[in-house]
Amino acid sequence: MPEHTQSRTTNDDVTSGTGGSSMHRRAFLTGVAATATATGSTAIVRGQNGGGSTHVIGMYQDSEGYYFDPIGLHVKPGDTVKWACKSGAHSATSYSKGNPKVNNVLIPKGADGWNSGILQPGQSFTHTFTTKGTYDYYCIPHKTLGMVARIVCGEPGGPAESGSIPSSDEPQSGVMPPSKAIVKENSISFPYIPNEGHGGPPALFWGGLGIFSLTSVYLFSVYDRKTGRYDDTSETEFEVPDRAEADESAEE
Q1: How many CB atoms lie within 10 A of CB 129?
Q2: pLDDT value at 97 more than 70
């Protein structure tokens, strides 16, 4: 079995996560930390199990809210994901046993979960994926504010496909992208607003347009009726003179 690797990387220290505690490994990480301190940059610690690609996910807090970008990412087994805190203070934490605020497991069976702890701007965290399947994760302080995202390693599978994140954790803008869309696009930016496949604007646009149209029709209908054109009482009433009056008028 390849060694599982995850690490927290900052500008001044590197802390190894679960999956390795040998002296050689500690020496390697210490060397990387020294290099990062000397250059003043954040080091990327690659996985120790074959050297896959490294993908970067930003962690943000701005006028759009609290979010990971991309919100959906497709990786291959052996690839490493680096979460980089760009603004605010966030964590990257899998929906897995032992992690805070988790009631349901949403990573593949047998896969390693992760928890970066709270990262400040300029800090980062890496995790190497070795088990195929779908991984949902969240930010501890902003979980119920919709700061959640999804990674598909290889192909979709596992509890995240049959279950779902709690409704209280749903993204405040857009929705959690489906795994098939993530695999097709490889990377999906925040926010994800699904397209119904008609080649035009997203479904939310058409829904909004439909509601606006129905509301307009209703308001115009109310206005139209208030004009009185459909009111029986508003019709002009004509007096019909009796026959005697009509005869007198004729004689004159």
Answers
A1: 28
A2: yes
